[in-house]
User: Which sequence fits this backbone?
């Protein structure tokens, strides 16, 4: 058997195979012999039918089957011999055997490209300087107070900003009821979930009253039931409650762990803000590294991998929307347009992933099992779980590989950061 592999592009290879006529004829005769032995034919005992009759009746099917087997076997051999990392099913040309003639065919396959990364050392990166002011700490502490706010019924006035309004409603657009609730509640601040204009129309409502109004929503409004529509609301107010914040004293502070009072709580809050700031700064710096790495290494990215990444990103989006209570069936999403929108970022992610792997190989960076086990133990501790439970979660080869890939990426990005030209300042 003669074979050749030629590059069509950075991610495509054309495999050409030539099998001698002698081997073709031997395989055809072998198939006929087996068929004669196994298939009963009227008027003859099994295995005793004339070979010419068998050939006349089954020639086309035998030749087709032999063609299929020879293609599969020879491609498997070539892929293994040439160590091709094939991503797609081959597109086969000319795969039809003819008795007495050499069997020649070609197949084009998509492969993982052989990446030779360049320019990954000395990448200029601006690392954001983390600064936490007293005002930042005060604002964070105030948010803690907000999270413990209680709402008390008001008397003698209508709803004001920051009040909680309990109500039932119907929402109609184009003569059709698109939303309804007998009991819901909204805090009149921030425009969630019905929008700022809705909340402005709710100011002044009192318990036991009704109110009707229309709201024109923009096309990009987060709720697809309302997006781009003018919605008529009929509101029946059940109650209005005023927000009361807890006193900022030592008793309040002691609710947040092992702290003695307000002063120590502020110290803990400052430490948390610094840690969050450092994490944000690190994330932005790593994103800058990824972007620069992709820009410095242009190469063909396999369409198969881009498609897989695009699908994964779309699935994540659908799951997130579903978790937010969005009815995906009513969104009338254009999957093709969504795919087009996600594709450029998917391509960048695939490119960076291939570069990360290539840099890891080139710089002998690995994530051994000891480090994977340590990561699982850290996860168990952070989540308050037993180690064995976490280990069980990653028992499948696929999930274990995914964890290893995350660790490897973290180590490679650390290497890149160590070898980058890092300056401290404001992000660009």
Assistant:
């Amino acid at each position: 058997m003669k074979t050749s592999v030629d590059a069509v592009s950075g991610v495509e290879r054309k495999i050409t195979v030539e099998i001698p006529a002698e081997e073709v004829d031997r395989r055809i005769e072998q198939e006929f012999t087996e068929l004669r032995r196994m298939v009963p034919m009227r008027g003859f005992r099994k295995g005793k039918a004339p070979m010419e009759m068998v050939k006349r009746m089954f020639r086309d099917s035998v030749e087709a089957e032999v063609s299929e087997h020879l293609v599969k076997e020879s491609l498997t051999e070539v892929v293994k011999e040439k160590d091709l990392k094939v991503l797609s099913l081959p597109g086969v040309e000319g795969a039809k055997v003819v008795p007495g003639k050499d069997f020649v065919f070609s197949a084009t396959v998509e492969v993982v490209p052989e990446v030779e990364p360049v320019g990954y050392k000395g990448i200029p990166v601006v690392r954001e300087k983390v600064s936490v002011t007293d005002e930042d700490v005060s604002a964070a502490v105030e948010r803690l107070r907000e999270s413990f706010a209680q709402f008390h019924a008001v008397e003698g006035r209508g709803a004001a900003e920051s009040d909680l309004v309990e109500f039932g409603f119907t929402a109609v657009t184009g003569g059709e009821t698109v939303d309804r609730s007998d009991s819901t509640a909204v805090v009149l601040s921030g425009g969630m979930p019905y929008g700022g204009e809705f909340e402005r129309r709710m100011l002044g409502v009192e318990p036991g009253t009704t109110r009707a109004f229309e709201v024109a929503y923009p096309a990009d409004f987060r709720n697809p039931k309302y997006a781009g529509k003018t919605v008529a609301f009929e509101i029946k107010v059940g109650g209005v409650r005023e927000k009361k914040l807890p006193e900022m004293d030592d008793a309040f502070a002691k609710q947040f762990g092992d702290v003695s009072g307000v002063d120590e709580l502020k110290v803990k809050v400052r430490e948390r803000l610094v840690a969050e700031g450092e994490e944000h700064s690190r994330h932005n710096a790593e994103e800058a590294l990824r972007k620069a790495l992709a820009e410095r290494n242009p190469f063909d990215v396999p369409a198969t991998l881009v498609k897989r990444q695009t699908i994964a990103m779309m699935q994540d989006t659908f799951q997130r929307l579903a978790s937010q209570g969005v009815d995906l069936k009513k969104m009338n999403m254009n999957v093709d347009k969504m795919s087009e929108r996600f594709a450029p970022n998917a391509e960048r992610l695939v490119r960076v992933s291939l570069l990360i792997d290539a840099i890891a190989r080139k710089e002998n960076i690995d994530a051994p099992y000891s480090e994977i086990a340590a990561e699982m133990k850290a996860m168990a501790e952070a989540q308050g779980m037993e180690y064995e439970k976490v280990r069980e979660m990653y028992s499948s080869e696929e999930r274990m590989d995914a964890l290893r890939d995350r660790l490897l990426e973290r180590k490679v990005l650390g290497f890149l950061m160590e070898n980058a030209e890092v300056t401290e300042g404001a992000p660009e």
Q: What stands out?
A: The first strand starts at residue 2 and ends at 9. The CA atoms of residues 40 and 46 lie 5 Å apart. The mean pLDDT is 90.
